[in-house]
Amino acid sequence: MLLAVSGPDQSGTSMYWRRGFCGRAEQIRSVRAFAAHLLADFPALDDVLLVVDELAVNAIRHTRSGRCGGRFAVEICMDLAGVIVYVADEGGPGEPRLRDIAGLAEGGRGLLAVEALAATWSWTGDERGRTVRATFPRADARPGRPAVR
Fold first, then answer.
1. I want to staple 65 with a disulfide (CB 3.0 to 4.6 A). Which of 21, 89, 103, 143 is the partner?
2. How far is 89 from 99, CA to CA, in rounded Å?
3. Cross-sheet strand order for the sheet of 15-22
């Protein structure tokens, strides 16, 4: 199901979309297409797509969302300040965390990419279900990062 509504300011400058996905790897392409369609004119679209991809993959690989019959949801909020992406999963025993990756290890870099590309990221929840949130302002004022125009 896709939900699109104007935000609380009713001026049409704030939008919210939510869509549920089956917890299967082939759904990742649909997640990216969903975000790309909604945010086509957003200046940091490539960063948002990479982050939403990583968060959806993590939901499938590391939570019950990736088990038979599992599901996860992607929510996107956009207003004049920027974009916030949420990926909600069915939880699991581990918590989202940055890993210290050395050498050429094949996995474990997903949240490092999220950390590098999003202005902020955080998570809430527990083993029954978690939501990871990443923010993308229209103009990124973090030191060392070029401003998005």
1. 89
2. 20
3. 2-6, 15-22, 71-79, 82-88, 129-137, 120-126
Nearest residue to 44 via CA among 119, 126, 142, 132: 119
Q: Please, are residues 6 and 55 in contact by the beta-carbon 8 Å criterion?
A: no
Instruction: Quote the radius of gyration of the chain (alpha carbons, Å).
Output: 15
> pTM surpassing 0.85?
no
Q: Which residues contact 90 (CB under 8 A, 6 or more apart)?
A: 23, 63, 64, 65, 70, 71, 72, 128, 129
Whether the Cβ atoms of residue 24 and residue 69 lie closer than 8 Å to each other: no
Fill in the amino acid letter for 76: I
Residue 116's H or E segment, with its range, is helix 110-117
